[in-house]
């Protein structure tokens, strides 16, 4: 009498299919996570930028240390400065790095330039306009922050 023999185990084809399915699922999860992380970074960075601008305006209105204050925007940072002009390397500058996933893609201020200076006591500014932040890896994801002539800052 002859016995049929069955070998237990998986074929290479079955293993490759399982590995392929796991790889596809992992890729989908990673893309979703990256998108969520970038959106979260953009939101947090825009809120922090508004806080920095409001701090400069508040310091100016209160005439803190007798100075007026402003904010200078670079591609990857915002610098709160005191005095009528921004001076690179001044020891009183407060440099705030943006999240690595976010950058300043555009500044559009009256009179040009990349800084906003607030006026003592009133908090108004002659450099009103907009700042656009974007996710570095996805230029379609942006947030625009507006600065009114009155110095009021908010989302556009």
UniProtKB/TrEMBL annotation:
Record-annotated membrane-spanning stretches: 12-33
Sorted UniProt keywords: Membrane, Transmembrane, Transmembrane helix
UniProt-listed Gene3D superfamilies: Glycoprotein, Type 4 Pilin
Coiled coil: none
Entry-linked InterPro entries: N_methyl_site (IPR012902), Pilin-like (IPR045584)
Keyword hit for Membrane: yes
The keyword Membrane is annotated on this UniProt entry: yes
One matching Pfam family: N_methyl
The protein, known as: General secretion pathway GspH domain-containing protein
Organism: Candidatus Yonathbacteria bacterium RIFCSPLOWO2_01_FULL_47_33b
């Amino acid at each position: 009498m002859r016995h049929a023999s069955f070998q237990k185990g998986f074929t290479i084809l079955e293993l490759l299919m399982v590995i392929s399915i796991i790889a596809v699922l992992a890729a989908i999860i990673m893309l979703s996570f990256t998108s969520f992380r970038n959106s979260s970074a953009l939101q947090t960075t825009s809120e922090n930028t508004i806080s920095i601008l409001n701090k400069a305006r508040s310091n100016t209105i209160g005439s803190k240390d007798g100075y007026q204050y402003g904010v200078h925007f670079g591609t990857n940072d915002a610098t709160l400065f005191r005095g009528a002009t921004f001076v690179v390397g001044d020891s009183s500058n407060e440099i705030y790095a943006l999240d690595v996933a976010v950058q300043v893609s555009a500044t559009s201020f009256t009179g040009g330039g990349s800084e906003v200076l607030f006026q003592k006591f009133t908090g108004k500014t002659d450099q009103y306009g907009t700042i656009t932040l974007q996710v570095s890896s996805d230029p379609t994801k942006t947030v625009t922050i507006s600065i009114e002539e009155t110095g009021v800052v908010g989302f556009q």
